[in-house]
Every structure is written in structure tokens, then in C-alpha cells.
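Task card 7
Instruction: Convert sequence to C-alpha cells.
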Amino acid sequence: MKLRTITLALITLALTGSFAFSQSATTVKGWNADTIVWQSTEEDGTKHAILEGDRHAAGKPFTYAMLVPAGAWDNHTHSHNHDARLFVVSGALLLAVGPNPDKKIAKSYPAGSYVFVPANLEHTMGADEKTLIIGTAEGGFETHDNASPHSH
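Output:
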């Protein structure tokens, strides 16, 4: 079932046109929850990693992973300057849209969900259970938050 979910994630991302592999790649690259090298960790334990591409290369797609620990909830809304496409690999992503960061209004996206977050949409997120997300976006990706800086 896990392999089917990961395969579905890869197919979904490929069909959106946002899952881009480097044209100079000569070998297949693959990751799972145990082999991702996490590059940053927030205070609440949320981890981030760039899997391929460069989030700072304007106009170039990149792929990232995010591991949200059980009980994490971002109490500040934020937005991004580019669209984000997310696939929930495991767990369930909680996402609240709008200026209110209240967890009670969050929608749950369980494992197997594909989530499109448009550019400049104010939102916040968290998880009640450990949640792994794979996402794609366009380089030059920034997070805008007036309360505190975020890396996701």
C-alpha cells in the first residue's frame, strides 16, 4: 500500500507538470521517509529538505519534503509568492485558509491527498499526527509572514 501511495504521488506530480528532473541527471534518485536528509528544523520540530532543484533559482522548479510532527500547529498565517503543489505521503495535513489561524477551521488532507495552494493565499498548517509531505514549486519561492519568519 505504501509503494502504491508513493507511486500515485509521483504520477500525480508528473501529470501536473511541476515535477521536474534535472536535464543533466544521469541516475535515478529516490527517497523515503528514512533516507531524506533534513536540512532545517523549526522550533516545533517541523523538518524541511530540498530533494532536487534550487528553491532560489527563479523560474526553475524544485521539489521539497516537509515532515510535520504530531501536534504541530503554526499560530501565524503566511503566504507564498508562487503556487505550491503538495502530496501528503503519510499522516494528515491540517490546512486553514484565510487570516484566522484557528485550528478549528482547518481542513484535513489525509495520506494520498493532493493539495494545490495558490500564490499569495493566506494560510496556516499543522498536523495531529506525524505527517510527511512532498511538494513542488517554482524557484524564487518565498514565505511572507508578518509575525515571524518561516522556512516552509
